[in-house]
Task: structure prediction
Amino acid sequence: MYSNKKHFDAWIVVSIVLFLLFLLFLIYPLVGIMKQSVINEDGHVGLGQFVKFFSQKYYTNTISNSIKVTLAVTFFSLVVGISMSYFYSFYKLKLSKLIFTISILCCMSAPFLGAYSWILLLGRSGVVTTFFRNNFGFEIGNIYGFGGILLVQTLKFFPLVFIYMNGAFKNIDNSLMEASANMGCTGIRRLFSVVLGLVMPTVLAASLLVFMRAFADFGTPVIIGEGYMTFPVLIYREFVNENGADFGFASAISVIAIIVTALVFFLQKWASRKFSFSMNSLHPVEKKEARGIFGVLIHLYCYAVCLIAFLPQVFIIYLSFRKTNAAGTIFLDGFSLGSYQAAMNRLLVRSITNTVKLGVFALALIIFIAIMIAYLTVRRKSLLNDAIDTFSMIPYIMPGVVIGIALLTAFGHKPLKLTGTFTIMLLAVVIRRLPYTIRSATATLSQIPLSIEEAALSLGASKFRTLSRITIPMMSSGILSGAILSWVAILTEVSSAIILYNNRSITMTISAYVAISRGNDGMAAAFAAILTVMTIISLLIYLKVSKSEDIRL
Result:
């Protein structure tokens, strides 16, 4: 007998639940920030906060400061990253795996730790500065301000370009290179007229990634910027102003930050569509021997860049074993474990425990939600699922400080008061890292033929069994490729955590930042060294397990 009963579709329930979660934990906080931004100092609704921002040069300069330094960082990151990747992809370099490994280690460390290390090296009382002053009688320059931010962020972000471009250069067909050589186009001329044209979509994607991360970086400019005020630092200082937090003004600046990054995001999307094309490598480029003076120069260039970029991490570990006074604040002659003892007395165990706990819970949630959203957007297209996909990308264009303020504003009071809890820290890192993992999972699932799932269903497997036993295992390479990298990003999260933490939920990154901001150099070095070692171990495990250079960041 024919039944008119409709089968229960669990995926509709999943879609509704995810949609409601995004409404509660993303859209509601954003609406709260927008609402707060139009409340004037007298309590009335208006645009007074925006008028205040645009009417004073001190505030508007922060926009130009952020854009100028971010554009400079993006440009130099592209120059260094593309040149490194070109040499790596087209020539047989000695110690090439070491170059690749160090590049990954450099790009996944906390940016402000690099800033702190460079201050200890090139600051007013830095090791290198003091050496030149005492032995040669001259000053080597000022590490602070625009130049310092540019140096630290370029060394931090050029590996992102390097890693992206490696994949793009591998997709170039060797026949195109041979054809250009036959027409007399070789060397630098071929790089600019042929090669870069073929990989332009990847160049644009890498540019956006560097721009977004550099623009949103809070730690580097607050440590090394001094008088060079950037947008994220201004937002933070207005929110935690010692004369009283100005929630309305901080919210208005946050809205402006979202608009600026959104404009850049859509501009990049437009440019990507304009230059979009597909390219398949039937005959991958064969690496040539790097011989003669040219070979020596490119080896020296790659080694020098890696050495300079990795120097801050090595120097931090070295400093952590220097002898300090009892408080762990001042370095003395000799070596000891005093800095680690001082850190033990300053929430070291709690910081490590919270960091690991936060990473494990956040990573589990990120992977689970990313799989669900990827399946919904690829396999079950609908208006509701398209809305979920759109919502999931919103944090991509939001600086971490803005996410922190939005969550604190929304959940700092009843009925859902989460201020100072582990939960609100967890929400922040999940929201921040989710867009990247979703894109990775979606790209992987899009390459899996639907016919495989249909075959399993036709053989009597349930939809859930098909997903868990067939689809997810086939997605595992894409999921795992982002898992440890997401873990490292969670370990080094600072911009949203600095707004949300307290002593109960403090993490290693925040402990290091607090020690640096208070001038406790020895203790800061110990926290930073442990965090650096945790990051290095995580990434070495990733490289060992994945055995791949195709990294989704």
The CA atoms of residues 65 and 230 lie 6 Å apart. The two ends are 54 Å apart (CA to CA). Strands lie at 91-92, 288-289, 322-324, 331-335.
